[in-house]
Amino acid sequence: MIILKDLLLGLLQGLTEFLPVSSSGHLALAKAFLGIRESGVGLEVMLHLGTLLAILIYYRKRLWELVVVGTFPPQRLWRTPQGRLILWIVLGSIPAGIIGILLNNTIEGVFGAPHLVSIFLIITGGMLLLTLFQRKKTPQGSVGPLRAFLIGIAQSIAILPGISRSGSTIVTGELLGVEPRRAAEFSFFLAIPAIGGAVLLELTKGQLALDIGAVLGMFVSLVSGYFALSFLIRLIERGKLYIFAPYCIALGIVGLIFTV
Predict the structure, then answer these.
(1) What digits encode the pLDDT tens for the residues 126-135?
(2) 208: phi then psi, degrees, rounded to nearest 5
(3) Is 68 exposed, middle or buried (0-12, 13-18, 19+ CB in 10 A)?
(4) Longest Cα pair distance anywhere in the chain, in angstroms?
(5) Which of 44, 138, 163, 248 could cross-link 158 (Cys pair, CB 3.0–4.6 Å)?
(6) Which residues make Cβ contacts (< 8 Å) with residue 166, sequence separation at least 6?
(7) Exposed, middle or buried, 78 (CB in 10 Å: 0-12/13-18/19+)?
(8) Please, are residues 249 and 123 in contact by the beta-carbon 8 Å criterion?
(9) Dihedrals φ, ψ of 209, to 5°?
């Protein structure tokens, strides 16, 4: 039964980490509905590691290009588009890093308040509806320093469970005029230091689960995350990010009904 729960949580993590429906919100509500009372931080580290690997595999060619072309020699960071993009990723990662360090304990408390998570899911749904206004004029811009920082602020807000990280960053990018596919790419590049940093932080605390259930859960989150990421990119290219809004709003309402 425990392994089954690990597999279910792995599937939820993989599907919802990339789809704009908040993986943290789903995990928090799933724990409440499944009656899982322990913190399970070690398991969550493994599940996040699975989704991190999914990003690295999906964007492996693009990431290799950024590293090779943008950083060798180091002065290319300023002289090439690949190098500047690396700098924008670093710049965009600063807000979430600061918020994560300063409000870590407060945010952990929100995970234990499913009614707040439900409210944040409804907010995510409303945010996704904003992309309806972008359908008549497709953004064509690229990510620059100001846009990178503002998208990073959106990511820092998404530390709250129920606020979708991918949804908030991609929507912010599009509203700022960034071409949808570029906004999505930058969003998931920002996820690498965000997820990687969270995993490393927990590892320094000795939080790691290597039992069979956790390992299988990580594998499920990796595979499901990879396919969810592929699916989302196709939807973004077609300008249909808003289709997830009704689901987020409905889940938030159901969560409020059963948890308040």
Answers:
(1) 999 998 877 6
(2) -155, 135
(3) exposed
(4) 57
(5) 163
(6) 17, 18, 19, 20, 184, 187, 188, 191, 232
(7) exposed
(8) no
(9) -115, 120
CA pair distance 65, 91, nearest whole angstrom: 19
Terminal CA-CA length for the chain:
28
Residue 31: exposed, middle, or buried by beta-carbon count in 10 A (0-12, 13-18, 19+)?
A: buried
Q: Residues 95, 152: contact at Cβ < 8 Å?
A: yes
Question: What count of other Cβ atoms lies within 10 Å of the Cβ of residue 212?
Answer: 11
**Residue 113 CB neighbour total at 10 angstroms:** 15
List pLDDT tens digits, range 64-76.
Answer: 999 888 887 777 7
> What is the C-alpha to C-alpha distance for residues 95 and 88, in angstroms, rounded to an integer?
12
Structure-token pair, residue 47: 């599940």
Give the residue carrying structure tokens 């060619």.
Answer: 61
| CA–CA distance, 36 with 30 (Å, rounded to integer) | 8
Kindly report, residue by residue over 173-204, the tens digit of the pLDDT: 999 999 999 999 999 999 999 889 878 877 77
| Identity of the residue numbered 26 | H
pTM above 0.90? yes
Q: Encode pLDDT of 98-150 as tens digits.
A: 988 888 777 777 888 999 999 999 999 999 999 887 766 666 788 999 999 99
